[in-house]
C-alpha cells in the first residue's frame, strides 16, 4: 500500500524515533509498504518518520544510481543490487574525508542542496527477520544510509547546510509546510500555524 509522505514542518520529522521490539505489529507489512511508497516517489531511501511512524526503521534501494554515467562501472554494479531494511540502526563510526553531494528528500520536495558527509561508516542494525548485523559501507551507499539514519534521529539534510543557504530556501520550506508545493506522489502537509 502506498502511504502518504509527511511534508517538512511535521513534528514527527523532528523526533528521535523509538526502538522497535521484535513483536512490533505488522512490521513486515510496514516495510513492504515503505518500499512501495519509496518506489512510487522515485526515491532511493525512506525512513519511517517520513510516513508518520516515529520508529527506528528505514529502507534503501540504491539501484536507480546504476544509470548514473558519472559513476564507474564498479560503483554502478555495487549500487544496482543494494536493497535493505534497517531496524534499530546505530552508526558506530563515521570516518574518512568529508565529501559533497547534492541531496534531496521526499519530505522536502523541489529542494536540493550540497551536503558534506564522511565517506565511510560502520553501522549495527537488525534486518526484517531481526538478525543482527555490523557492516561497513562507503561512497553513495554510506551517504544514503547517513541521510536516512538522520531521519530516525530527528535530523533533516537542511540542518547540514549553511545559514545563508537556509535563508535562501526559507520561503520554499514555508510553502511546503503550507502545502503549496506539487509532488508526483501522495503527501501529507501540516498547515502552518500563526505568523
Automatic annotation (TrEMBL):
Keywords: Hydrolase, Iron, Metal-binding, Protein biosynthesis. It holds the Pfam family Pep_deformylase. Gene3D superfamilies: Peptide deformylase. Its EC number is 3.5.1.88. Binds 1 Fe(2+) ion. CDD domains: Pep_deformylase. Coiled coil: none annotated. Fe cation binds at residues 105, 147, 151. HAMAP family: Pep_deformylase. Belongs to the polypeptide deformylase family. Removes the formyl group from the N-terminal Met of newly synthesized proteins. Requires at least a dipeptide for an efficient rate of reaction. N-terminal L-methionine is a prerequisite for activity but the enzyme has broad specificity at other positions. This is Peptide deformylase. It comes from Flavobacterium rhizosphaerae.
Amino acid at each position: 500500500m502506498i502511504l502518504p509522505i509527511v511534508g517538512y514542518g511535521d513534528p514527527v520529522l523532528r523526533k528521535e524515533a523509538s526502538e522497535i521490539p521484535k513483536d512490533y505489529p505488522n512490521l513486515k507489512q510496514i516495510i513492504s509498504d515503505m518500499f512501495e511508497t519509496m518506489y512510487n516517489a522515485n526515491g532511493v531511501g525512506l525512513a519511517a518518520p517520513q510516513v508518520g511512524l516515529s520508529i527506528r526503521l528505514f529502507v534503501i534501494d540504491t539501484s536507480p544510481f546504476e544509470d548514473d554515467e558519472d559513476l564507474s562501472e564498479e560503483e554502478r554494479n555495487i549500487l544496482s543490487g543494494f536493497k535493505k531494511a534497517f531496524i534499530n540502526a546505530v552508526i558506530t563510526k563515521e570516518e574518512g574525508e568529508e565529501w559533497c553531494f547534492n541531496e534531496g528528500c521526499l519530505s522536502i520536495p523541489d529542494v536540493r542542496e550540497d551536503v558534506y558527509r564522511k565517506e565511510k561508516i560502520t553501522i549495527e542494525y537488525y534486518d526484517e527477520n531481526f538478525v543482527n548485523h555490523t557492516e561497513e559501507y562507503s561512497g553513495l551507499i554510506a551517504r544514503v544510509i547517513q541521510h536516512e539514519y538522520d531521519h530516525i534521529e530527528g535530523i533533516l539534510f537542511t540542518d547540514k547546510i549553511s545559514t545563508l543557504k537556509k535563508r535562501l530556501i526559507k520561503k520554499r520550506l514555508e510553502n511546503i509546510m503550507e502545502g503549496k508545493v506539487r509532488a508526483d506522489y501522495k503527501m501529507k502537509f501540516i498547515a502552518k500555524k500563526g505568523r
